[in-house]
Amino acid sequence: MNMFHQIKAYFKFLLRSTNQHGVHSPFVYDLVTKCFYDKTQHVNYEKLNAYRSRLKAMDKRLIVTDFGAGSRTTKSSYRKISDIAQHAGITPKNSKLLYRFSNYYNPKTVLELGASLGLATQALCLGTPDSKIITIEGCPEIAKFTIEYLKERQLSNFNLINGKFSDVIPKLDIPKFDLVFFDGNHQKEATLNYFEALLPKTHNDTIFIFDDIYWSLGMTEAWETIKQHPKVTVTIDTFYWGIVFFRKEQAKEHFSIRV
After folding, report:
1. Alpha helices (H) along 106-216
2. Which residues contact 218 (CB under 8 A, 6 or more apart)?
3. Distance from C-alpha of 44 to C-alpha of 141, rounded to nearest angstrom
């Protein structure tokens, strides 16, 4: 079901999407040309690649507690770290994009829903080293491993909290977030609940990024609902991500951009 939906959605995306030449908003044009299509081989890419390569070589198994939509590849509670890195983490291409994105906007307060093994967390830490990054992970064993692994990489500008998103979000003491990366529960109802719960913590320049918006029909329905929300102005669909802006100076407009 999921695979068929993704293939169908991807062909529709290709038909409606564009590159920078189809973008008439200066704000979005700058993002596309200076961030999305930045071809610079950033030095930190080597750290992103090394982090992933080491994880993919680990045979150690963890007992996985999954509060989200589950794994695409296995139902077992015991999963090898190498398998989690291969199938559950952010892709190499998107980790580099997240690095560029956070570096481009330089958010000071960041929230990540779904730390997993820290592949996206590392990209955020390196992309915006002066920021305060809070990341939430539901699985106790993964959380414990990831905290130790990130600290071994000399990353310190993060606070990983182990707990259910629905329990942790109401207790967050940061009044406003500049960037929120949603990557921990690919179910329609949960995604919309977290979106609504975090709306009070937005300001005019807050950015929400939703990962895997075509993971399932339900996730795509959630994305369509979010796009129509009255507080949302500009949205960008890269197929893998749905990016949301709340800038009141922007007319409500939706873009589909090939990255």
Report:
1. 119-127, 140-152, 165-168, 188-198
2. 187, 188, 189
3. 27
CA 136 to CA 161: how far, in whole Å? 5
Mean pLDDT confidence for 109-127: 97
Q: Please report which confidence band the pLDDT of residue 76 belongs to, taking 50, 70 and 90 as the band edges.
A: low
Sequence length of the chain is 259
CB neighbours of residue 175 within 10 Å: 9
For 199-254, what is the HEC assignment? Answer: HHHCCCCCEEEEECCCCCHHHHHHHHHHHCCCCCCEEEECCCEEEEECCCCCCCEE
Task: Report the candidate in 110, 104, 53 with the shortest Cα–Cα distance to residue 81.
Answer: 53
Q: Determine the Cα–Cα distance for residues 34 and 54; give it in Å rounded to an integer.
A: 30
What is d(CA 131, CA 107) in angstroms, rounded to the nearest whole number? 6
CA-closest candidate to residue 66, choices 7, 2, 131, 142 = 142
The pLDDT tens digits of the residues spanning 195-249 come to 999 999 999 999 999 999 999 999 999 999 999 999 999 999 999 999 999 999 9
Q: Do 113 and 150 contact (CB within 8 A), yes or no?
A: no
Phi and psi dihedrals of 7, rounded to 5?
A: -65, -45
Indicate if the pLDDT at residue 90 is higher than 80: yes
pTM of the predicted model as reported, rounded to 2 decimal places = 0.93
- The values of phi and psi at residue 222, to 5°, are -60, -45
Cα–Cα distance, 213 to 177 (Å, whole number): 21
Residue type for 13, please? F
Instruction: Pick the closest to residue 143 from 128, 158, 123, 132 (CA basis).
Output: 158
